[in-house]
Write a structure and sequence with these properties.
The chain is built from five helices and two strands; from the N terminus they run H-E-E-H-H-H-H. The longest helix is centred in the middle third of the chain and has 14 residues. It is mainly α. Helix content is 62%, strand content 4%. The relative contact order is 0.13. Helix 2 packs parallel to helix 4. It has a domain of 65 residues.
Length: 96
């Protein structure tokens, strides 16, 4: 749940997806990650592990450089500092 101004910003950047019914819009990756980070920081403690796994999966699937200033700002603004450190450390691990 977000307030109206926040929803308007998210809707403006949402995109249609051909795999979904017509007129169905999907939130941008930036907004999805911001929402997930906010949920980790302020949400139900019982969901933290799942939300962290979701963030890790989205970062990996989209090959995000979490150290870039734009992504770092999102993670630190909306999530707890420990999340950003976990993402940064995961990025440093060599690929198998």
């Amino acid at each position: 749940m977000v307030n109206e101004p926040t929803f308007a910003k998210m809707l403006a950047l949402a995109k249609e997806c051909s795999a979904l019914p017509p007129d169905t819009r999907v939130v941008s990756l930036e907004h999805l990650l911001a929402l997930k980070c906010h949920a980790i920081k302020h949400g139900d403690p019982g969901r933290v592990e799942k939300d962290v796994d979701d963030v890790l999966g989205l970062v990996s699937a989209n090959q995000l450089d979490v150290t870039s200033s734009d992504w770092r700002e999102i993670f630190l603004k909306y999530g707890p500092p420990e999340l950003y450190e976990k993402l940064r450390k995961a990025r440093q691990k060599p690929s198998p």
